Sequence to fold (239 residues):
Amino acid sequence: ETHASETGTYFLLRTNLERVRLLCELVKKREKMKKEFYGSTASLLNRLTKPLNTIMDEVIEKISSKDYSDVFAKPVTEKEVPGYSTVIKNPMDLSTMQKKLAKGDYKNLSQLKSDFTLMMNNCSTFNRHNEFFWKYGHRLHRIGLKYFRAAEKDVQALTLANGVLKTISSISYAPVEDSKVGNEEENDERMDFVQRRTSICRNSKSEKTAPTRISTRKRTLRTFDDSITPKRPRYNLGR
Fold:
């Protein structure tokens, strides 16, 4: 009996632990979906309110995704690379570019591209004798320029769309005013026509017209009496 009770207790404990594990998985999944939903909503709002910042942020994220070893992810310190500050006077990295974008320091895409070029030039200058980092920076520079060319096309399309929207908003009220003027002219013409017809009717009623006699002639219909009308003779056909 003691063994059976212990087995039942362990089984109940295992069942409860399994329920807790499933509950934790559901909560984790719910929080992940909530985070994705809020992230997509925030990105959509940023695209609508600040489309240029969204384009530049996507460029930085794409370049960061290609930095597999996180060489350009953070600023270089003297502890990690001794003598770096003496050679490189204007250091630059991806995290600094992200912070400047969040502060609003980049007014256009060319400013972001200049900082990216500065970061790549610093890499090639300091690692001219280090073949691994020089090739690593050269590869990332080539990929980054590809992303910037695509972003420039997006900026051109955005500028064109803004120009079209401004043009449409400036001429949207012109047809309405023309239609109002046309309707007013038509109403004036209709009122003039009605007034002319009314005056003609009044003049025709005021004039006295002579009565006209209509000659009516009774038509007499000739009637035939059956007794007077001769009957058709019958012929004997040899019957």
Confidence is low (pLDDT under 50) at residues 176-181, 212-227. The longest helix spans residues 2-49. The two ends are 140 Å apart (CA to CA).
